[in-house]
Amino acid sequence: MTDYQHQTIVLESPDKFGKRPPFEFCGNVFRRIYPVMANSVRMAFEGRSAATGEQPKWLKRASDVRLLGFSDQNGNTVLELEARRLGDAAEELYQQRQLFNDLPDPRETAIHVMARVVNDIRSGNAESALYDPSLLRVTQHLDSLFVHDLTAIRLPEANDDVHLRAILDREIPIHARELSNSTPAPRQLRLTGTLDMIRYSTKAFALKLADGREVHGVLDRAEMMEALPVFLNKKIVIVGKAVYRPSGSVLRIDAQHVEGDSGESALFNRVPPPLVRRPPAGKLRVESGKGGVAAFFGAWPGDETDEQLLASLKEMRG
């Protein structure tokens, strides 16, 4: 039997529609929050909120929320809902060996996951692992919800939250835009490390770097997973993109190619920092005592000479 959980969310409006909300009023809410909810769930399980190709079956099940009816709470509209428990919807992910140890509580639903994303965005958490640049962009589009009748949506942030502590209001898309604008652009990279763990169901992996730190990544294509198991606990080379948080720290690696390490340069033992946004042309200047590549990029990724860096870049191009 499908395991659904009864939940409520509250739509606050100065018009006090109660249990008789206009069709357009509710329809706009459903259209706008569903992408945020589904992307939040994907982020929680895969470490990324969007991907090309068909939506996984477990994600469709986890995002399955049904409307039962309406009730009244001090004149505000209460949506009576049923949502799939994550442990039931994504059972295969919970049964497999976990790459990340922070999967949502299996008793929770997609609404709880979205509520925690909302809270992190409201607080301006620049180190959050609950959202990525794509999810921030989707959340920005919620601003149209609050143009007319709606002032806030109250959501449960945990399985035992009966007070609906998470508040989705007009401040959320504003904060999402601010966080998005401060997030560095993804950067192409070549990275070496030891393949530490694999999660087959979500094409995810963990890479242990030379300094002992671990970074998480996702394979760009499903067929790449076929060749990955032979590299477990061995040194590999990842070619792909580094995706950053608003703080500038690494959120994940999007891997486009994986191969065995045959003696890569030490230049590629660590994730490069994000590129600084290019200043206006009139403000470009050469720092005192610097020239060549270092004049524009500084000491990246370490204190290598221009000759070492250019040689390594030439090697990357083959």
Give an overview of the whole structure.
This protein has 318 residues and is an alpha+beta fold. The protein contains nine helices and ten strands. It has two domains: 4-182, no CATH class; 187-278, OB fold (Dihydrolipoamide Acetyltransferase, E2P) (Beta Barrel), CATH 2.40.50.140. It has helices spanning 23-46, 57-62, 86-89, 91-95, 110-122, 133-140, 171-182, 292-297, 306-316, and strands at residues 4-12, 65-73, 76-84, 152-155, 166-169, 187-199, 204-208, 214-219, 235-244, 250-260. The chain has a five-stranded antiparallel beta sheet with strand order 2-3-1-4-5. The protein has a five-stranded mixed beta barrel with strand order 6-7-8-10-9. The N and C termini lie far apart (56 Å).
Defining key terms:
single chain; 318 residues; alpha+beta; OB fold (Dihydrolipoamide Acetyltransferase, E2P); 2 domains
Task: Produce the secondary structure layout.
Elements: E1 4-12, H1 23-46, H2 57-62, E2 65-73, E3 76-84, H3 86-89, H4 91-95, H5 110-122, H6 133-140, E4 152-155, E5 166-169, H7 171-182, E6 187-199, E7 204-208, E8 214-219, E9 235-244, E10 250-260, H8 292-297, H9 306-316
Parallel strand pairs: 8-10
Antiparallel strand pairs: 1-3, 1-4, 2-3, 4-5, 6-7, 6-9, 7-8, 9-10
Helix pairs in contact: 1-5, 6-7
